[in-house]
Write a structure and sequence with these properties.
The complex is a heterodimer of chains A (about 325) and B (about 500).
Chain A lengths: L7 H19 L6 H26 L7 H18 L6 H25 L4 H20 L9 H7 L2 E6 L5 E5 L1 H18 L1 H11 L1 H6 L4 H27 L11 H10 L11 H17 L10 H27 L1
Antiparallel strand pairs in A: 1-2
Helix pairs in contact in A: 1-12, 2-7, 2-10, 2-11, 2-12, 3-4, 3-5, 3-10, 4-5, 4-6, 4-10, 6-10, 7-8, 8-10, 11-12, 11-13
Chain B lengths: L3 E12 L2 E12 L3 E5 L6 H9 L6 E6 L2 E2 L5 H6 L2 E4 L11 H13 L6 H14 L15 H14 L4 E5 L7 H16 L3 E5 L3 H7 L2 E6 L2 E7 L5 H9 L17 E10 L3 E9 L3 E5 L6 H8 L7 E6 L2 E2 L5 H7 L1 E4 L3 H5 L6 H6 L15 H14 L16 H13 L5 E5 L7 H16 L3 E5 L3 H7 L2 E6 L2 E7 L5 H9 L1
Parallel strand pairs in B: 3-8, 3-9, 6-7, 7-8, 13-18, 13-19, 16-17, 17-18
Antiparallel strand pairs in B: 1-2, 1-4, 4-5, 9-10, 11-12, 11-14, 14-15, 19-20
Helix pairs in contact in B: 3-4, 3-5, 4-5
The chains are: A mainly alpha (about 325), B alpha/beta (about 500).
Chain lengths: ~325, ~500
């Protein structure tokens, strides 16, 4: 098979390999099941966020409000279930979060798809509104006693075990949810006409309208779907952290979008792959979790991530430009 | 006509008080090619959008195959077999050829899931129907313009097409590609598909169409069999006046040499190019596509670095391969593709003109004198009679002829000595074309040297004092105006 060097995926995969090699060289204990499960755990919430951010980018928009949707949902779900529905099982809690997320996503959807406002401006606005509304009217105090359903979910493990050196490792059950989200999104994007229409409007809205695609409906779906994923991620985040902190999550949105762009999605719309997105998230999680192993102070994290974004997205663009210059 | 496929009757459309279409009616029969001619702003585009279901008429009746239609939408029009190939093709650059061709068909099927096998089969079958070979899996954004257009045609044909509307299909194509397109249209007609052909290029129109409808200012001003029209009468109907081709005013005998090009050379592209350009002279360099004419034009302005030779303006050397130096020396270049090379499409008209003059209106600290800058830009807009509703509107909103004028205005604001115009009237309607030729004559009369690069022979003959024929990268022959007829010149270019 020929390796396509102009693709972001190739480059990101290589950087991940190089990073792992460097980490393994400086700490032989790096290549272990425990490291892997740590990384997978770190990718659960980020992965769902990234899938959501990617689908908006493909449709030609950009959504920065998903972290606020997640924080809002997680806090409201924990509070509502504690107050009114303490008997709700874990899957009920996830479902409740998805409904709250869908409602908030629908607000974005109405503003963007129905009223035709620019996506960045709308979601910047709703980011601030969702967050401010929650902190002002709902509460600012951490909820340390989560409802039983969420506590139950927080304790679920797909596997757990003991290493040779006596340390424990485990993989959280929420990882399965991320996998399901990825598979479902792949199916929607690649195997349904709705998914192809999302790509189409990302390629050209006007063309889509002219061949009779219902652009409003497709866009509305996109923002509701993002709301559902964000709500889900919010409830998972609180369950895994065993606390619903209203100040959590918001602020992550740009790193998430960066991970998606690193994976090859274009801000101009119409391009993006799940493989690339997963690789982008993997690289960011790897950097966050393991920079310390390489002996690099954690304050360098954001510098490292920024460099990766510059190199990871700049190099393929530069190569494409050179290739174009050669053929001209 | 009893078996009309599509009939329009009294179709009227107004946009915020401006009447775009006023009681237009005509009909198209199966297997017939109808030409819709008209200048920019005559209502052609509105008519297309109404047939496509993108816009709704205020009044009037549309009948498809004997059935009067209610309010249309893109889906209904497409299902009735009306397919529009828009000027910009309306493709999805990020999707594959196969997916682009099959997209409308798949939507019409109403299935929720993607059927890749079916889509590919349909795409392959449609491509072979018009006899072209384009790989199915490449992204459309990587294709050439001609191939993009073929993909757009295939998409229109992929589902049951009964009327294909082509909006300015030949603007971006070379002579040979136009031949291929006209052949495709003939084949479609033989299959019983009707074609509504919208074009500025009068020769093509008369070649493939049986019937001509001319719009002017939203009204139908002429209609009849194509045999009753010739280029002159069509032009008269479109513009409402006689646009006669006149040879340029003679050049003063003692006009000084302005630009002297000697031995300009670029390996594999052009060789040993030498000529003089006098003040007040319009010099045409004419050659077929691939003759090196565009490379030469770019080399004169420094956009292509020649390997050797010299360019002297008023007896002072101009550095080669340096557009900034060329512009400073007083050479201006208006590119062929003004959309990608010449204009900032989304910025306002005045800003587009003013951009060439930023340095002249900055003070020592680099702060701009906006008032003077915009005043000057507005002044040039008036002098070149750009029809713009609002000088702060984006350039994109202007017609082709007016966009070309904006590019000219930008250069004129810099008061150049030599202006190189590459394809000055490509994609411009007849009326504007005549006006652009008038502007060229005025510029030359004011003492500028103008070089027109064009393969539009009537244009060359009516604007230039001297015509240089370029072939395989060399200037092979020169003619003074009036020394050569159009047929003879065409023969020289091709032989």
């Amino acid at each position: 098979m020929k390796i396509d060097w102009t693709r972001n995926e190739t480059l990101v995969a290589l950087v991940i390999l190089a990073f792992c090699a460097a980490a393994a060289a400086s700490d032989p204990g790096f290549l272990s099941v425990a490291t892997l499960t740590d990384l997978l755990r770190g990718g659960i919430v980020l992965g769902i966020f990234a899938v959501a951010a990617m689908i908006v980018l493909i449709s030609g928009g950009i959504d920065v409000s998903f972290t606020a949707v997640a924080a809002f949902t997680m806090y409201v779900t924990a509070m509502a279930l504690n107050a009114a529905l303490p008997g709700m099982p874990w899957w009920g809690a996830l479902g409740f979060g998805m409904c709250v997320g869908a409602l908030l996503g629908a607000i974005n959807g109405v503003l963007i798809a129905i009223m035709g406002l620019p996506t960045l401006i709308v979601t910047l606005g709703t980011l601030s509104i969702f967050r401010g509304f929650m902190l002002t009217f709902i509460g600012q105090k951490q909820i340390t006693t989560l409802p039983p359903g969420m506590r139950e979910f927080g304790r679920m493990m797909l596997l757990r075990g003991e290493n040779a050196d006596g340390s424990f490792y485990s993989l959280h059950g929420a990882f399965a949810v991320t996998v399901i989200v990825i598979v479902l999104t792949w199916f929607i994007l690649q195997r349904t006409m709705l998914g192809r229409q999302i790509f189409a409007i990302g390629g050209s809205v006007e063309s889509a309208r002219r061949i009779g695609i219902n652009v409003r409906r497709v866009q509305f779906f996109v923002y509701v779907y993002v709301g559902i994923l964000a709500g889900l991620a919010g409830v998972i985040h609180a369950s895994m952290a065993r606390v619903a902190n209203p100040f959590d999550l918001v602020g992550l949105e740009l790193s998430v979008i960066a991970a998606v762009v690193l994976g090859g999605a274009r801000l101009a719309g119409g391009h993006g792959t799940l493989t690339g997105t997963i690789l982008g998230v993997a690289l960011i999680v790897l950097v966050r979790n393991s920079l310390i192993v390489l002996g690099i102070p954690s304050t360098w994290q954001s510098v490292a991530i920024g460099l990766l974004i510059l190199i990871g997205t700049g190099l393929p663009a530069w190569q494409a430009k050179r290739a174009a210059a050669r053929s001209a | 006509m009893t078996d009309a496929l599509v009939t329009l009757d009294g179709v009227t459309k107004t946009y915020s008080g401006i009447t775009a279409l006023d009681g237009v009616g005509f009909s198209i029969a199966a297997g017939e090619a109808v030409c819709l001619a008209g200048e920019n702003g005559s209502g052609k585009s509105t008519l297309i959008k109404i047939l496509a279901g993108v816009e709704r008429p205020d009044r009037g009746k549309i009948v498809f195959a004997g059935k009067t239609q209610g309010p249309l939408n893109p889906r209904l029009s497409a299902d009735a077999g009306i397919k529009v190939i828009f000027q910009d093709f309306s493709l999805f650059p990020n999707l594959s050829v196969a997916e682009n061709i099959a997209f409308s068909a798949e939507i019409s099927h109403g299935s929720r899931l993607v059927r890749r096998g079916r889509a590919r089969a349909l795409a392959a079958q449609t491509l072979s129907r018009i006899g072209v070979d384009i790989p199915l899996d490449v992204a459309v954004e990587t294709l050439s313009v001609a191939h993009k257009q073929l993909v757009a045609i295939c998409r229109a044909l992929a589902t049951k097409a009964r009327l294909i509307i082509m909006d300015e299909p030949t603007t971006a194509l070379t002579e040979r590609e136009v031949r291929v397109l006209l052949d495709i249209i003939r084949r479609l007609k033989a299959d019983g598909v009707a074609v509504l052909f919208v074009s500025h290029k009068l020769a093509e129109v008369l070649e493939v169409c049986e019937h001509v409808v001319v719009l002017r200012n939203g009204q139908k001003v002429a209609e009849g069999p194509a045999t009753e029209f010739d280029a002159a009468s069509l032009t008269r109907h479109m513009t409402g006046r006689d646009v006669a081709a006149q040879p340029p005013a003679p050049l003063a005998e003692n006009a000084p040499v302005l630009l002297r090009v000697e031995g300009l050379n670029k390996t594999g592209i052009f060789a040993d190019v030498s000529f003089d350009l006098h003040a007040g002279e319009v010099l045409a360099v004419s050659g077929l596509l691939g003759s090196g004419r565009t490379a030469l034009a770019k080399a004169l302005f420094g956009l292509v670095a020649p390997d050797g030779g010299s360019i002297r303006l008023n007896d002072r050397g101009v550095p080669l391969g340096n557009p900034v130096a060329a512009a400073e020396a007083g050479i201006g270049y208006v590119p062929e593709d003004r959309l990608t090379e010449g204009l900032f499409l989304t910025q306002s008209i005045v800003q587009n003109i003013a951009i060439g003059r930023l340095d002249a209106h900055g003070n020592a600290a680099g702060v701009l004198d906006w008032r003077a800058l915009l005043g000057e830009a507005g002044d040039w807009l008036r002098r070149l009679s750009v029809k713009a509703p609002d000088p702060t509107a984006p350039v994109r909103s202007l017609s082709g002829g007016n966009q070309q004028r904006v590019v000219l205005a930008r250069w004129m604001a810099r008061s150049p000595k030599v202006l190189i115009l590459n394809g000055p009237s490509v994609g411009v309607d007849v009326g504007s074309k005549a006006e652009i030729h008038g502007i060229i004559a005025d510029l030359a009369a004011s003492g500028l040297g103008v070089i027109v690069i064009s393969d539009d022979l009537p244009e060359v003959l009516s604007t230039a004092h001297r015509i240089l024929v370029m072939k395989d990268g060399r200037l092979v022959q020169g003619f003074a105006s009036g020394q050569v007829s159009e047929t003879e010149l065409a023969h020289r270019l091709a032989s």
